[in-house]
Amino acid sequence: MKKSLTLATLATASAALPALAHHGQPSGARDGRPNVIVILADDLGYGDLSCYGATRVQTPTVDSLARCGTRFTNAHACAATSTPSRYGLLTGEYPLRRRGTDVAAGNAGMIIPPERYTVADVFRAAGYHTAAFGKWHLGLGSRTAEQDWNGQLDQTPADLGFDYHYIMAATADRVPCVYIENGRVANYDASAPIYVDYRRNFPGEPTGRTHPELLTKQRSSHGHDQAIVGGIGRIGYMKGGGRALWRDEDIADSIAAHAVRFIHEHREAPFFLYFCTNDVHVPRMPHERFRGKSPMGLRGEAILQFDETVRQITDALRAEGLADNTMIILTSDNGPVLDDGYDDRAVELAGDHRPGGPFRGGKYSSFEAGSVVPFIVCGTDRVRRGHVSNALLSQVDLTATMAALVGLPLPEGAAPDSRPYLSAWMGRERKGRDWAFKTGHLHSHILRTQQWTYIAPKPGPAIIPWGPVIETGCADGPQLYSVRRDVGQLKNVADQQPRVVSQMQEILENLQLP
Ligand code: NG6
Ligand code: CA
């Protein structure tokens, strides 16, 4: 169904936009169209990069991208955790509109329905070669818990516009701990068939709970006490894998190497890469070459590794002479967390580092640090160089903005919440959105404008009750903060600003969210 939509789009685009007709032809020729790489970090906070003010860690490669392009100070993810954030980024639809977009298990069925139009479909329609790398966390296969991990998965990113994928099914702390390449376990080891279950353990398999002495690489601080893979406790039970199991220390290099190979193989034709790092998500187990390199321990080293991963990508572009014709959009899926369930001393070693920058809260939170993310665009001369922009951006606009970039209209009904903000994303227009909608803790509704952040009433605990020491942002009544003056959200002014509150409520009502 989606295929015919795509072809219809091509036909309409060519007819309606004769000047751009060549953009719609899926030919190998580049025609001056830029390659596009979305680099999506995991749990990397606004304050975790030196170009955003970090001093206890240096990120020279990312900083150089910021110098060559535009660095945004008011950019927002769709949600404060991974699965819903990625759903919004890829589909241009608020995750709250779709059930089952909360943090996914490693055996979740594919969460984006195959017929949903994605940003990868935009590029495929424009004749690009498209690929997804690294953390996926949007489910695989047509049915939850019924995947055959020993054969071809029946629903994969290939159904969502990606020509190639080399991904982790969920996260590094969730089984299965193997890479999936084009719908099959990479390096499959027939002598160790793979079984995954999120409810019951397999007889005879040790778990973190029963055999803590086998947690030789990292101990858990909360949860992560089920399957043990490579001396680390995970979420979910798993059996088998053998040679296909990843080594945590090699994850960053492995996904970067596959992306680099893709760049080399597709240097002649335009490509779109959705490149998702595991850094700086838990378990933080960066390669040995980073050990001892950061005063912040493993979390600091994971940030250094992230920066080096970015360098591996930019080096490949430079080697192919593509550096000036490849737009890079670098951002993160949600805000930062220190202790996220492993005893990696991230809290003890943080010192005065503020991973969320000036913002309150962190990952999971309805306060701003949950979803304000680093956001850098660079790489072609369309992007303003050396610029810092306060334009209000939302990741939900990726799909429509990329359609504008390649000059194709979106099919009817596609990316319903996504709007094109190409000039703002290129650093050439100052304002951006009037407002950005985000999902916070327990599905809280958050509405952000240049001046205000409104958090709709949501009863709940003040601090996350199950581990990370982070304020949830829950409150029985409405919260309004003048973030322009009160960036740390210290004073709730909802009572003093009833008109603003009702304007915000009206916008939220108009969204008709479930
Ligand atoms: C939590 C995990 C946390 C992390 C998070 C998802 C526990 C105790 N905590 O449930 O470690 O995996 O889910 O993170 O299991 S995210 O960035 O992928 O959304
Ligand atoms: Ca995340």
**Uncertain residue ranges:** 3-29
Tell me the strand order in the biggest sheet.
Answer: 7-6-5-4-12-1-13-14-2-15
Which cofactors or ions or other ligands sit in this model? 2-acetamido-2-deoxy-6-O-sulfo-beta-D-galactopyranose, calcium ion
Helix content: 10-25%
If you compute it from the alpha carbons, what radius of gyration comes out, rounded to the nearest whole angstrom? Answer: 22 Å
Number of strands: 20
Which CATH architecture of the domain at 2-185 and 251-425?
Answer: 3-Layer(aba) Sandwich
Beta fraction of the residues?
5-15%
Overall structural class, as computed from helix and strand content, comes to: alpha/beta
What is the general shape?
A: globular
Order of helices and strands: HEHEEHHEEEEEEEEHEHEHEEEHHEEEEH
Labels describing this entry:
514 residues; single chain; Alkaline Phosphatase, subunit A; alpha/beta; 15% strand; ten-stranded mixed sheet; binds 2-acetamido-2-deoxy-6-O-sulfo-beta-D-galactopyranose; four-stranded antiparallel sheet
